[in-house]
Amino acid sequence: MSDYLHLNKANWDQRAPLHAASSGYGTEAFVKDPAHLSDVVRFDLPRLGDIAGQRGVHLQCHIGTDTLSLSRLGARMTGLDFSPASLEQARLLAQRCGAEIGFVESDVYAADRVLPAGGFDFVYTGIGALCWLPRIDDWARVVAALLKPGGRLFIREGHPMLWAVNEDREDGLVIEYPYFERAEPTVWDDDGTYVETDIALTATRTHEWNHGLGEIISALFRHGLQLTALEEHDSIPWEALPGRMVLDGCGEWRLAKERWRLPLSYTLQGVKLG
């Protein structure tokens, strides 16, 4: 296993039980209410359309809240993640909710070797996934390999402009980190996570990469996908820039001032040709 996979996997294995127990992921709400959906999936309901009966795979599914939400919309879902601790929580949640979802442990770059190639009506990727991958072209290849002809990619992600901003600089929107993909990772050493918890991580070192929006789209083009929709949003489902954002009534955070200055997330859709 490469260094970045080893480091990132250890970090996410420690995050998983903390996230499952947090109010931020709201797992108990899924158990109590069979119609409950994650904020991320609910945000994109008008864009998702009718997915009932479709076979979908959620890449980098983490603890499975978005995967479960897509299942509740009628899709036949598979979730894939490289963290066994995350998948343990995902399977437990699906079991508690009576949902039939298959979860597979794998590095995303090997997804087309552990799942049926050309076997899916749609591939779904959610917020905060692509930044953990060093090469966007390899991801696009996997997406294309998993989709059947005419199958759809659906992705909601943090905007690469947001990832380039230093979240700790409250004196302004300071571009400090790479926008374009680089071979060298951005290395972090942090004992916290993005949910409220009193427990400090011991696997603190992680590697991340940014990918420009043009790089993502070009990679999809190279592997036979046609872009069908792209919408940039001025909101994101967590307080990405602490102290400078306000929460709306739908679980989305926006800049408190001058929202027009920075795109925070985007929704992209594409169709596999052939």
Keywords:
10 helices, Rossmann fold, 274 residues, 7-stranded mixed beta sheet, two-stranded antiparallel sheet, alpha/beta, 23% strand
What features would you describe in this structure?
One of its GO terms (molecular function) is methyltransferase activity. It holds the Pfam family Methyltransf_12. This is Class I SAM-dependent methyltransferase. The structure is a single chain. The protein has one domain (3-272): 3-Layer(aba) Sandwich (Rossmann fold). The chain is globular, with a radius of gyration of 18 Å. By secondary structure, the chain is α/β, with parallel strands linked by helices. The two termini are 35 Å apart. It has a seven-stranded mixed β-sheet, with helices on both faces. A two-stranded antiparallel sheet has the order 6-7. The longest helix is centred in the N-terminal third of the chain and has 19 residues, at 3-21. The model has no long low-confidence stretch (mean pLDDT 95). It has helices spanning 3-21, 27-32, 39-43, 45-48, 65-72, 84-96, 111-114, 136-146, 160-163, 213-222, and strands at 55-59, 76-81, 102-105, 120-125, 147-158, 186-189, 205-208, 225-233, 245-247, 253-255, 265-272.
Q: What is the count of helical runs?
A: 10
Oligomeric state of this protein: single chain
- Any low-confidence stretches, pLDDT <50, length ≥5? none
Helical/strand content category: alpha/beta
Strand segment count: 11
The outline comes out as globular
CATH architecture: 3-Layer(aba) Sandwich
Examine the coordinates and then state which fold CATH places here, giving the name of the CATH topology.
Rossmann fold
Characterize the main sheet.
7 strands, mixed
Strand order in space, largest sheet: 3-2-1-4-5-11-8
Q: First CA to last CA: what distance?
A: 35 Å
The radius of gyration computed from the alpha-carbon positions, rounded to a whole number of angstroms, is 18 Å
What number is the mean pLDDT? 95
Name the helix and strand elements from N-terminus to C-terminus, one letter apiece: HHHHEHEHEHEHEHEEHEEEE
Tally of discrete structural domains: 1
Strand content: 15-25%
Helix-residue proportion: 25-40%
**At the first level of CATH, what is the class?**
Alpha Beta
Domain Methyltransferase type: 58-153
Organism: Metapseudomonas resinovorans (Pseudomonas resinovorans)
Pfam families: Methyltransf_12
Keywords: Methyltransferase, Transferase
